[in-house]
Write a sequence for this structure.
């Protein structure tokens, strides 16, 4: 099952990890990005988006051959 936050990024399977990070950063509200106390949560969110993308790519690779 794919993370709903990852699905809202609307990225193709072929997107690079850097593109995933850019989309994840843009998905967060600017006020959320500005709060220093949320830094650990933001990093966790970015890691989750990268892991979800890697899992989607791996599943796509298995399905195609």
């Amino acid at each position: 099952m794919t993370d709903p936050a990852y699905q809202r990024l609307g990225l193709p399977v072929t997107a690079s990890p850097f593109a995933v990070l850019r989309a994840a950063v843009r998905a967060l509200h600017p006020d959320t990005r500005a709060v220093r106390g949320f830094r650990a949560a933001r990093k966790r969110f970015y890691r989750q988006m990268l892991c979800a993308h890697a899992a989607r790519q791996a599943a796509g690779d298995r399905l195609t051959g």
